[in-house]
Design a protein that fits this description.
The complex is a heterodimer.
Chain A: H1 11-32, H2 44-57, H3 60-91, H4 93-108, H5 115-122, H6 126-150, H7 154-162, H8 167-205, H9 209-219, H10 223-251
Chain B: E1 6-8, E2 14-16, H1 20-25, E3 32-44, E4 49-61, E5 65-69, H2 76-83, E6 91-96, E7 99-100, E8 108-111, H3 123-127, H4 129-133, H5 138-151, H6 167-180, E9 185-189, H7 197-214, E10 217-222, H8 225-231, E11 234-238, E12 245-250, H9 265-299
Parallel strand pairs in B: 5-10, 5-11, 8-9, 9-10
Antiparallel strand pairs in B: 1-2, 3-4, 3-6, 6-7, 11-12
Helix pairs in contact in B: 5-6, 8-9
The chains are: A mainly alpha, B alpha/beta.
Chain lengths: 255, 300
């Protein structure tokens, strides 16, 4: 008996790319028939045609490396301080009760508005951008770490207790691995928030990286180039997301 | 220690704990490795204090298999957690080979009712866990863990993750992990409660085989009469809340046993005898539950 096409392993991927292609085709048609103003949204075919030009002529690779270095630095900080912060909130109940609402509020706040303050403190340099990325990514990692640790099944903690584990062993051998899937959800969110804010601040302060590229292309009114650069950033975000998924699968092979 | 006094249940009915003779003549009287003396545990609630366990005393001799059976809500799991050192704030004492238990004790291994394998570890890594904790080198701990994996009949599954196993296999992994720590006393809290009856009987066979091989002292907490009779040398019947020991029944079924024994006449007699003791307690529990639900409904 043959498997229905919707149940095949490749169908979701085909559907996903097919949807993107269909949307682009629709936008292309809307623009060509004058339903969308082409001076606001360029033709998708023009955006695709501009992509190689932007990559070659606008030194995308070196700009990408700068943004990647900033994002990597912010990610390391987000991971270290986010996981440690979440673990502290889990460990100290009073601290959790006193601050959890605030941390949640920070996660929902438009933190990019704080960049003028960072400009004053750190100056117009990469440190401001890294700290901005760190600020944006910290709260989701903290909250998800807390959620993961607090959600560890009681029986697993009891198993650890029955084997007389020290608090340190209890954390590293049981709580942390049990919470890892939830921590990864937080890390994925945190890293994407950090990347968005990094590119955003690069754009706002016109300092290097892919954000500055988008700013420059927009100021030149190179619409197709601007959209191509934005698409490039989206592709990178998707890849970061996939990378963290692979990393999680590597750390937790079967669940 | 659990010397046949007359106790009164809440319903006012005198329950003769006609146990003295059996207890003193039984295997527990001599070299008791586990001695639980007059344990009482109260839980404070907003309305009143609930006595979960009330003056429970019992002893288990080396190599003996003792079952504790009672209806839901009789404090079996509370007793399990107290003996395992996971619960404090109780009256009375628990001693292992004369050593007072003040917290989790290395001589006691616990198998929990809930599925408790570590999903991020393979079968062999799960079983080697207690050996890893005490710092045994990787090669040696894998060697030892393999022995216990084999003992519970999971050869060939060493590199599998718990998610790739059935419920019964996962419980066997938990059992192997606890046995790998080589505890003097194995404490089991309804380990097969989540499994179907057939798997439960077959796993009972496995437990009997292991107990036979290791001469493992075991205390089994359960609400399943068949399981208790199939496995135990002695069965202690508990009353519904407050949980007291009501009766001790010595199971004189031949060993080595297997699940085939459930079809024997003697087995049926033991089951009937225990049910007659449990029935009153179980129905008290049921009525108490219904009354509590009715009260909750009235308040909401």
């Amino acid at each position: 008996m043959s498997v229905p096409i919707t149940r095949t392993s490749w169908f979701p991927a085909v559907l996903s790319f097919g949807t993107i292609f269909a949307t682009m085709l629709l936008v292309e048609l809307f623009i060509r028939f004058g339903l969308i103003n082409r001076f606001i949204v360029p033709l998708p075919t023009d955006i695709m045609a501009a992509l190689p030009r932007v990559i070659i002529e606008e030194q995308v690779f070196s700009r990408f490396l700068l943004t990647a270095a900033e994002a990597f630095s912010a990610s390391i900080l987000v991971t270290i301080f986010g996981v440690a912060g979440g673990a502290l909130l889990y460990r100290f109940r009073l601290l959790r009760e006193a601050t959890e609402t605030w941390v949640a509020a920070v996660a929902a706040a438009p933190l990019v508005l704080i960049y003028p303050l960072y400009l004053v403190i750190f100056g117009r340099n990469a440190t401001t951008i890294v700290v901005m990325g760190f600020t944006a990514g910290l709260a989701p990692v903290m909250l998800k770490t807390l959620e993961g640790l607090a959600g560890t099944r009681r029986v697993l903690i009891d198993v650890g207790r029955s084997f007389n584990l020290t608090p340190w062993q209890q954390f590293w051998k049981i709580l942390f691995p049990a919470a890892l899937p939830t921590i990864f959800v937080g890390m994925r969110l945190g890293l994407i928030f950090a990347l968005i804010n990094i590119v955003g601040v690069e754009f706002l302060i016109n300092f290097g990286g892919l954000g500055q590229l988008i700013n420059e292309l927009a100021e030149r009114y190179d619409l197709a180039g601007t959209y191509a650069a934005i698409s490039f950033v989206i592709l990178i975000s998707i890849n970061v997301f996939i990378l963290t998924e692979w990393l999680e699968r590597w750390l937790r092979p079967v669940e | 220690m659990f010397m046949g006094s007359i106790e009164c249940t809440e319903s006012g009915m005198a329950v003769a704990t006609a146990l003295t003779a059996v207890e003193s003549s039984g295997s527990a009287a001599g070299g008791a490795i586990l001695a639980v003396d007059n344990i009482t545990k109260r839980f404070e609630t907003s309305e009143a204090a609930i006595i979960a366990v009330d003056g429970v005393s019992l002893s288990v001799a080396h190599g003996e298999f003792v079952g504790v059976i009672g209806p839901s809500g009789c404090g079996k799991s509370t007793l399990f957690n107290i003996i395992g050192g996971l619960l404090d704030g109780y009256e009375g004492t628990v001693k292992v080979a004369g050593d007072l238990v003040r917290g989790p004790h290395p001589a006691i291994g616990m198998i929990f009712q809930e599925e408790s394998t570590f999903p991020w570890r393979t079968v062999i890594d799960n079983v080697a866990f207690p050996l890893e904790i005490v710092g045994i080198a990787k090669g040696e701990r894998y060697e030892r863990a393999k022995h216990f994996v084999s003992l519970v009949g999971l050869d060939g599954f060493e590199r599998r993750y718990p998610a790739e196993l059935s419920g019964g296999m996962r419980q066997r992994v938990s059992m192997a992990r606890t046995l790998a720590a080589q505890p003097k006393i194995l404490l089991m809290d309804e380990p097969f409660a989540a499994l179907d009856e057939q798997t439960r009987l077959l796993l009972g066979d496995k437990v009997l085989q292991i107990q036979q091989e290791l001469k493992q002292t075991t205390l089994l907490i359960t609400h399943n009469i068949t399981e208790a009779v199939q496995l135990s040398d002695r069965i202690l019947v508990m009353t519904y809340r407050p949980g007291k020991l009501k009766r001790m029944i010595k199971i004189d079924l031949p060993r080595p046993r297997s699940s085939e024994i459930v079809s024997s006449e003697a087995f049926g007699r033991y089951v009937a005898q225990i049910w007659s003791d449990l029935r009153e307690e179980a129905s008290r529990g049921l009525h108490a539950d219904e009354a509590a639900k009715l009260k909750q409904g009235g308040q909401s």
